Amino acid sequence: MQIRTIPVVRTYNLQWKPDPDYDGEPGTITIRQANTYDSERLADETAERTMVWRDDETGKAVEERYRWNSLTRNRIQAYFTIVESNLEDEEGKPIFKSRVEDEITTLNMSQSAFDKMWGKLPGELTLEIHEYIIDMNPQWDPRRGSD
User: Fold this and answer.
1) Is residue 13 a contact partner of residue 111, using CB atoms and an 8 Å limit?
2) Of 136, 114, 117, whose CA–CA distance to 12 is shortest?
3) Fewer CB in 10 Å around end: N or C, the chain?
4) What is the DSSP string of 91-103?
């Protein structure tokens, strides 16, 4: 039995506009279906973390816990699944850099470069993009109750 290992991709037309009077070409975002490795990395990166150490001065154990918030999770999911987009910055440079290798288009940015760019985008736009990510990857929908 053959199994498809090349991810399914879909391009979405964005409803978001840079201003209400914008009547140019719609923005597009291409999302790929996540694989098991992406889901494992997501679970690892967004797991609750606990650090425990002994305070040198008091000798008592100190515990620090932290969890990721939903917007951080959205950003990580976006990094794992965005393939390309026609969105450009003020200088006409692509916001999400891509490359084509063996006829497969992939994101061509480090996670830190992606994080910086994602953080500059309007919240309404990132929420819309995330809706499309969930459309392609329903296993990541928190309303389903599981990863």
Assistant:
1) no
2) 136
3) N
4) TS-BSS-EEEETT
Q: Using pLDDT thresholds of 50, 70 and 90, give the confidence band for residue 147.
A: very low
Give the tokens for residue 49: 């973390």
- The confidence score (pLDDT) of residue 93 equals 94
Q: Is 20 in contact with 124 (CB distance < 8 Å)?
A: no
Q: How confident is the model at residue 39 (pLDDT cuts 50, 70, 90)?
A: confident
AA identity, residue 116: K
Looking up tokens 């100190």 gives 62
How many Å apart are CA 113 and CA 1, to the nearest integer? 39
Note the pLDDT of residue 118: 97
Predicted TM-score (pTM) of this structure: 0.80
Residue 123 tokens, joined? 């919240």
pLDDT of residue 98: 92
Three-state DSSP state, 129: helix
H helices, E strands: number in the chain: 4, 7
Residue 118: phi, psi to the nearest 5?
-60, -40
**What span, in angstroms and rounded, lies between the C-alpha atoms of 138 and 31?**
13
Per the CB < 8 A criterion, the answer to whether 10 and 138 are in contact is no
